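Hi C.,

You asked whether I'd gotten around to modeling the 141-residue construct. I have! Everything is below, sequence then structure, no commentary in between.
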Amino acid sequence: MAPQKIRCLLAMLGTDVHNKGIRTLAQLLRDRGVEVVYLGEHNTADGVINALIAEDADVVGLSYSTATYLHYTRDLLVKMRAAGVDDVPVMLGGLIHADDEPALVEMGVQGIFGPGSTTDQIVEFLQDVTGKSLATNDSAV
């Protein structure tokens, strides 16, 4: 039996439009056997939650290159709790200031990956929080 794929929903909240990093990550994760649902830019918390539920994603990944991440992440996590999907891990990437990491963790963010993070670190995180392993190349389509 082939391993069950990790389903990772990637999105950008608000008006942040620097999407090169998240698009690159989406492809790198796909290359590793992760099933990526990429929502792109200009999403709302409600839209991300609707997609999370519809796509039955295992993890939500958000990318930020502006300083609005505290506001948008807090909004998403509050709405995830209200929708009953706060058991889905949330990870952030991009330009996250180290001084803000404790507040983000306290909010409920489980993974923070800034500049210098590797694909291996992100994949290891995904495997740890989902309990799933990656599909081998033999089972990839």
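If it helps when you're writing up: The domain at 7-139 is CATH 3.40.50.280 (Rossmann fold).

Thanks,
B.
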